[in-house]
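Q: Structure tokens for this one, please.
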Amino acid sequence: MSLPLGHFDRFGMVVGNLEAAMKAYAQVFGIRQFDLCEIDGRPAALGDFGSLRLELIEGSSGGDVCGEFFDRRGEGMSHALFMPDKDVSIERIAERATALGLGVETGRHRLTIACRHQLGGLALVVQSARPQIQGQRTFQPQALLPCQKLFHVGMVVRDRELAIGGFQRLLGMDEFLRMELHTDQGLRVWIDGKPALHHARTAFGRIGDFACELMEPLGGDGLYQRFLAAHGEGPQHYFPTILSPADFAAVRGGLGRAGLAVRLEGAIDDAMRYYYLDSAPLMGMCIEIIVPERADWWQSLGMSAQDAWRVGLDA
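A: Here is the predicted structure, written as tokens:
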């Protein structure tokens, strides 16, 4: 039996400087207000833009899940936060996690589950009520990037099949859409504008509003390979937008001037292009942008409507 987590609420980032992070996320996503709070004794902020909902925690050393991440990574994409169903208590979820051999950290209305090893570097948080709000920080941004929703989060893993088993066991995800990316098989890749050889195995799974991509780097070069070498397993990208070629061309310059230059471009046959942006301006969050080159782009890749749903599309 999987963990009764409830519904996905937001994604969590550990950042080095909370004020700088709020400014950066406001500029990119158009978030106008952050609610200031404290999480596990650390300064934090909650920011929403439609269904793009984020938790930013200012990192500090410590023996807990957040502190371990900060000591190892410094800053980056850390955890997925869920809100439990009304008839499920935090204590019940903690008991289930313990029965599955997972460490747990309990706080006021909040449970952190130490499952990075089982979920490709992702931790889970369950929160039954919002933390006490201590103030607000407001911005008047013009969003650099038009966004629709969080389609999925991408995790770099060492072993795709092992990671799939972890997500099935802990989150109850049923079937995964398995794919292979290979520059010998219809894929072209450019890293910092230069052609590259690339090979990776991927898989997409979803439960409710939480969708994930698991990427196992194999041969050649790529951001997955570089991420694994630098950080080990962990969440690597955040996919919030699908843009037409014209719309992407219109915003690409502004993104670049803000430091969000394209680090990797991929083209799959004549169906679509995807872009990964520099992660430094968003404190370790790498944004993925998909740019379809035809209206039936996902169908032309052989996906069914259920496959597209697992990728994060609501087809």
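A few notes: The chain has eight helices and 19 strands. Residues 152-311 form a domain with the 2,3-Dihydroxybiphenyl 1,2-Dioxygenase; domain 1 fold (CATH 3.10.180.10).
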